[in-house]
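Most newcomers find our protein records easier to grasp once they have seen one. A record pairs a protein's sequence with a compact description of its fold. An example says more than a description, so a record of this kind follows:
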Amino acid sequence: MELELAHAGREVLLVMGALLPIVNPLGNAPIFLAITSWASTDVRCILARRVAVNAFALLIISIFVGSHILAIFGISLPIV
């Protein structure tokens, strides 16, 4: 059980480390503000929350399904 938990922790850190440069939240903040320039602060908060929930769901799905998809194509995780 402890070995599985350690393995899951490493995978979570690997996914977070791989996705953070791609998502780039600090770099995308001005883009989000420019796209939602028409919106009030309340609407921006709602949109930002929706984006965060969708990104979190995508991350969770990637953690549980991503390695299986890579296995289908014969790609190992260290190669990625």
